[in-house]
């Protein structure tokens, strides 16, 4: 047998293998996001979230659904990931939401239809790129404190109490024989 048919088969198989590999890589990188999404905002502090409703997978949502600037009332990006019992994606929903919609993130047990639902929220422009798949991913991540009343005023009070206590303790220690 001549060597050229074997070489032709080898080249054809390597081309097919490369094509299959290209078809399967469907996740976005941060570079893709920066390229696809300009950074100008309609108002100061404006941000975008990926938005879609009951699409079949994450790729369809992130690539084809509109990523919209959120209204001023919204502050977070929300993701709902519905999976079959074996972990395959059934549906994906993403949108802009207010704080109340983010207070119950996490995963449900498998329901009577054999589906598990995980939800997550994040703060920041197009931060809802990945899907939550388990309790580790299904979280509420923020870049700023949620409750402003727990900020510096109370920590200054606690620091003052600690300093006064330390001073009184050292005075008491010095006066003992």
From TrEMBL:
Q: Name one GO molecular function term.
A: acetylcholine receptor inhibitor activity
Biological processes annotated in GO = positive regulation of canonical Wnt signaling pathway
Q: Report keywords, A-Z.
A: Cell membrane, Disulfide bond, Glycoprotein, GPI-anchor, Lipoprotein, Membrane, Signal
Regions annotated as coiled coil: none
Q: Where in the cell is it found?
A: Cell membrane
Membrane protein topology class: Lipid-anchor; GPI-anchor
* GO cellular component labels: plasma membrane; side of membrane
Q: Which domain of life is it from?
A: Eukaryota
Give the principal location in a single coarse category. membrane
- Which N-terminal residues, if any, form the signal peptide? 1-25
What is the recorded name of this protein? Ly6/PLAUR domain-containing protein 6
Q: Which organism is it from?
A: Triplophysa tibetana
Q: What is the lineage of its organism?
A: Eukaryota, Metazoa, Chordata, Craniata, Vertebrata
